[in-house]
Write a structure and sequence with these properties.
alpha/beta; four-stranded antiparallel beta sheet; 14 strands; elongated
Length: 361
């Protein structure tokens, strides 16, 4: 269901450019610190107007990758194209106009405490040499966009964490970037504020057609707003695809571990009652897309005799697609359990027999 590829990739010939619909294209990127590979052959594309989430555990290489993207780290090998231009060989001077095409929002906001909200937002335009009137007009426009039109003269110390991040987002948009990089932008916020910031980013993405690359270790962030996900581990992309597809059928153990907190799990009280044998099998059934739309359990009951009951789980919707995990109790005549598994697999489900219980749970 997911797309998979090797982290190795052929380097594009000199002068070649990324396709017009790609804001970013990374080809076989490598960056080492001593003998340790932080980024180890990453190839990745970020398409115009999409939200791509890059997720991984601490130390996976996420921060190094994003620093290579904005030119703060020089890769040891590979290529990075931003809006069709290869940037890894550019001088610091030539990188400056490129960086204005890339907005950045940070975990800890990085606002200047001695400047007003208005001046913080206008700072990138001041660096560009824009007139004061133009800077203030743009700051007012953006503060209205992020819901802080009444905070222009306030100072960061008087703002909540969510308000500070909204200022950070407005500042990142000041120079009308083609790409917005978000580096753990919600990890310092409480859940309610996180939801409001993610909603704002999605709204900006839709209103402005802005391409967003999210770096995060939180699967809930990915599920909420991303279109596509890439899982990074030890500097390599180990899994990539549409968010709903990866959530429905994670291929790697790392992805399954990262999803553990938000995918339904069999309650410990039930798992603790497993026996070597029992009259009822407990099945885990992962379904998505068409398989999740059909009356699967009704069809199963009609095809294979037995008693079936839903023990735990349910259906969620991600990117408009149904994605679910069901824990099913199946009491079937001797030798018929394999028929149940085959029947469900044939209809697009992924089935695992977890164990047996002797009594109802």
């Amino acid at each position: 269901m997911n797309q998979h590829f090797s982290s190795a990739g052929a380097t594009l010939p000199p002068g070649d450019v990324a396709p017009a619909g790609d804001v970013v294209r990374i080809v076989d990127l490598k960056r080492r610190f001593g003998r340790t590979p932080a980024v180890d052959g990453v190839s990745l594309t970020v398409r115009k107007g999409e939200i791509l989430g890059i997720i991984g555990r601490s130390g996976a290489g996420k921060s190094t990758l994003i620093r290579c993207l904005n030119g703060l780290e020089r890769p040891d090998a590979g290529q990075i194209f931003v809006e069709g231009r290869e940037i890894t060989g550019l001088s610091e001077r030539d990188l400056q106009p490129l960086r204005r095409r890339i907005g950045m929002i940070f975990q800890h906001f990085n606002l200047l405490s001695a400047k007003t909200v208005e001046d913080n937002v206008a700072l990138p335009l001041k660096i560009e040499g824009r007139s004061k009137a133009e800077r203030l007009a743009r700051a007012a426009e953006l503060l209205d966009l992020v819901g802080l039109a009444d905070k222009t003269k306030a100072y960061p110390a008087s703002l909540s964490g969510g308000q500070k991040q909204r200022v950070g987002i407005a500042r990142a948009l000041a120079a009308r970037p083609a790409l917005l990089l978000s580096d753990e932008a919600t990890s310092a916020l409480d859940p309610e504020t996180t939801r409001s910031i993610l909603s704002l980013l999605k709204d900006i993405n839709q209103k402005l057609g802005l391409t967003i690359l999210l770096i995060t270790h939180e699967m809930e962030v990915i599920r909420t707003i991303a279109d596509r996900i890439a899982v990074l581990d030890a500097g390599r992309i180990i899994e990539e695809g549409p968010v709903w597809s990866v959530f429905a059928d994670p291929q790697s153990e790392v992805t399954r571990s990262l999803l553990g907190g938000i995918r339904p799990q069999l309650p410990a009280a039930i798992a603790g009652r497993f026996a070597r044998s029992g009259r009822e099998a407990i099945l885990r059934i992962d379904i998505a897309g068409e398989a999740a739309r059909r009356p699967l359990l009704q069809e199963l009951a009609a095809a294979v005799p037995g008693r079936y009951r839903l023990v735990h789980g349910g259906i969620d919707h991600i990117q408009g697609e149904p994605v679910g995990t069901l824990f099913l109790g199946a009491a079937t005549p001797a030798g018929r359990l394999a028929e149940v598994v085959d029947f469900l697999n044939a209809r697009g489900a992924r089935v695992e027999v977890l164990g047996h219980v002797t009594d109802d749970v």
